[in-house]
């Protein structure tokens, strides 16, 4: 009986102690039920205004200004290849010779026929002249003169036709010689001596690509159109193409702005031309393009790390006077090195430049010491 009384007494004391602890906790927190969340250490930066160059960046594709696929105009067998793959050729340079035996024979035949008909024409001219003299002396009638005139006219037409045949034979013979229509570099040669070629063949005999000057095609968002047009009105726009692998860069100029914005993706196509005398740029390459489009006057800037992206778009956290953070939507205009040029913030505002990924609107923050900001960007 005594044991039961002792156990009941101990249990009562424990319940009372727990109730007192709960009561004490509630009194300590003033009824909140939990301790206040301490300020979060973050990096901070001031919103600034400054003059910055308008440097529009994009990825471009190097394209040749001229590219020609060489195909025959007549059927024939390749007799000789006069160039090598990768060779630089000049306009008019001999590339291929096709077998010309049939065309040469046809030309000789046409020339021989022309000589024969020219001889007959000369004889007809003499006959006509004699008949006219005899007509004056009344030795022949007018009909004889008319007959000789008709014969000479017919032979004159025949000679003209013969000359046309000779010209056609020469053209057919010329078609058996293929020359470069532009200067440039030769690609892969797809035929060899003995290969039968014909018009309309699917694969070109070879391709000539002009590599200097050369162009790079790239696109920019339509929001940059105004800046590009304003800068273009002021003078030539400089463009720099940088090779991603080697880091080598080539300077050129903007030569083309497309006449319309692509409504499907809201971009504008542009082209830049480069002298490329050293051959650094190669057709088909991808390059990093930077277009110098003037300067931003008193642009609003923040560190790039202060620019965050959420479901509703880009935003930054500004630090209020009480240490709380506020989510402010911003519009990104451009990025210059480590600075973002934006709209939506005012000079002198304080933004969270490091640690913003873990924040929520209303959280309290404090300036962190070096390397102390919580949450990476």
TrEMBL record:
The entry's keywords: Cell inner membrane, Cell membrane, Membrane, Signal, Transport
Chain ranges of the Multidrug resistance protein MdtA-like C-terminal permuted SH3 domain: 298-355
Entries under InterPro entries matching the protein: MdtA-like_b-barrel (IPR058626), MdtA-like_BSH (IPR058625), MdtA-like_C (IPR058627), MdtA-like_HH (IPR058624), RND_pump_MFP (IPR006143)
Broad class of the protein's primary localization: membrane
SUPFAM superfamilies: HlyD-like secretion proteins
Places the protein is found: Cell membrane
Domain Multidrug resistance protein MdtA-like barrel-sandwich hybrid: 66-209
Positions of the Multidrug resistance protein MdtA-like alpha-helical hairpin domain: 106-175
Start and end residues of each Multidrug resistance protein MdtA-like beta-barrel domain: 213-294
Signal peptide (from-to): 1-19
Family membership noted in the UniProt record: Belongs to the membrane fusion protein (MFP) (TC 8.A.1) family.
Protein name per Swiss-Prot or TrEMBL: Efflux RND transporter periplasmic adaptor subunit
